[in-house]
Amino acid sequence: MRISIALMSLPAASAWSTLTMKQSGVNSSRRDMLQKGAALATSIAIPASANAYAVPDLLYPFEALEPYIDAPTMKIHHDKHHATYVANINKATEGKPEVDILDLQLNALEAGPVRNSGGGHYNHAFFWDEMAPPDQAAKTKPSPELEAMINKSFGSFDEMKAAFEAQAAPGAVFGSGWVWVCLSSDGEELKIVGTPNQDNPLMKGVADEVMFPILGIDVWEHAYYLKYQNRRPEYVSNWWNVVNWDKINENFTYVTEKKAGVPVRG
Amino acid sequence: MSTTSKLINPALRSALHLNSSKGVTPAMAKSAAAYLSSAPSGGVHALPDLPYDYAALEPAISAETMELHHSKHHNTYVTNLNASLEKLDAAVSSGDVSGIIGLQGALKFNGGGHVNHTLFWENLCPKGSSEFPTSGVLKDAIDARFGGLEEMKAELGAMTVGVQGSGWGWLGYDAKTGRIEPATCANQDPLAATTGLVPLLGIDVWEHAYYVDYRNLRPKYVSAIWDIINWVLLSSLSGHSDNSVVDKDNLEMLTKERLSKNMNRVMACVS
């Protein structure tokens, strides 16, 4: 059971200030938000339909990725930005049959608002789960299978990182977007792809072919601005410290076996 | 920061408007062409000084945002534009067509970033220092297209808030119809080169333009920016701020004169 609360604190701005949260498992910060939300709300939606998407709880506290990603950034990124995409995809799919968010990606370019909000939901849900606190992340590394594929595709792990960071530079993804490491559609190699806004390589028409992400970084300014401001390259190079290679290995195994995108929570 | 420094290189302004202004003189066109293709030997692009202090636009935009936006973001576009132009020069000199084509993305991004931000600083002024004119060519043009200032704010504001990802909202002049039109552009795509409209007013909705002050609340930022629009500059550039002549043809003047007017006019709104 999920409820949506629209904060109509600004005229014509509901899309930017709408929170969606699970009714169960409300932690203290969420309860706090809920109270603030209730105080500001001018309308409380009826319980959303059964297929409403939800922002998944993080697997770690907001401050867990410090010092590489700061707690205020994590909180606003998860509670506001991701929540807005979820609210909008719920609005866009209201009354329609239930479809897993993963299955909305393939034809997103033909589906109007689903492209931005559905992509935004999938991308962020993917992003949260591939990260872990730095002390835990440091204990993880690519599996022998993934390492072999990285070497085959890029030459070495360091060359993959360099190519990824180059693609994540401001002059490569020109505005807001994401950079991914994906398995090619034939499963033969890994490729690095930059996608604008909330597009991703699972969407037909975004890249040369549909590909299956195993790793991805958000390079919208909201992902790093509070801590890094204009220094996007510093954010990207620091980000490796919170990459959970256990999860990336799992993603790699999944896409290799299924030739499909990795399912996400939410 | 000095408030008397020159705001914008007139040659850049000429270059911006070449695309859609009929009134460009041959000398100006030559100057603009030289400017756009400028290599270090012909003078590099430079970060323009602001005509006001970083704190002058508070509370709509904080000093922290202005300093970052101007000294870091805009400056990076200038640096990378100069680097791209150097590479372009080398590619042109050696007849490297592939190299020339390969630079288009960087030129559009960094050249657009430089052009857009240069216009943006000029569009703004401290709150309360520039009232929207009660008559005149700018008011007439806005009334004709939107029905009024508030309607313009609502329509352009909604379009601007709706930009996916990073980009800009614009009020531009359409030389073919003689009307002004709202528009949006993605990333740093420059209005004139992308749409043919002559830029009158630009609103930057990259997150870097408002994230320090408004976080995810882009609509709040766009609402606030109307308080710091330099209407005096926009209308005085028409050359008829005394309202002695109000004529549709004057709209053409409004855009033409943005090519050549002394940018010190903007200072009138700062003192």
UniProtKB/TrEMBL annotation, chain A:
Gene3D superfamilies for the chain: Fe,Mn superoxide dismutase (SOD) domain, Iron/manganese superoxide dismutase, C-terminal domain
Cofactor: Fe cation
Organism: Thalassiosira oceanica (Marine diatom)
GO MF annotation terms: metal ion binding; superoxide dismutase activity
Protein name: Superoxide dismutase [Fe]
Family: Belongs to the iron/manganese superoxide dismutase family.
UniProt keyword annotation of Iron present: yes
PANTHER family associated with the record: 37S RIBOSOMAL PROTEIN S26, MITOCHONDRIAL, SMALL RIBOSOMAL SUBUNIT PROTEIN MS42
Keyword line: Iron, Metal-binding, Oxidoreductase, Signal
E.C. numbers: 1.15.1.1
Domain of life: Eukaryota
Pfam families xref list: Sod_Fe_C, Sod_Fe_N
Keyword Oxidoreductase (UniProt): yes
Enzyme class: oxidoreductase
Lineage: Eukaryota, Sar, Stramenopiles, Ochrophyta, Bacillariophyta
Signal peptide: 1-15
Residue span(s) of domain Manganese/iron superoxide dismutase C-terminal: 143-251
TrEMBL record, chain B:
Molecular functions per Gene Ontology: manganese ion binding; superoxide dismutase activity
Keyword S-adenosyl-L-methionine found: no
The protein's name in its UniProt record: Superoxide dismutase [Fe]
Record keyword NADP present: no
Domain Manganese/iron superoxide dismutase N-terminal, chain residue ranges per copy: 45-124
InterPro entries per the UniProt record, alphabetical: Fe/Mn_Superoxide_Dismutase, Mn/Fe_SOD, Mn/Fe_SOD_BS, Mn/Fe_SOD_C, Mn/Fe_SOD_N, Mn/Fe_SOD_N_sf, SOD_C_sf
EC identifiers of the protein: 1.15.1.1
Phylogenetic lineage: Eukaryota, Sar, Stramenopiles, Ochrophyta, Bacillariophyta
Family: Belongs to the iron/manganese superoxide dismutase family.
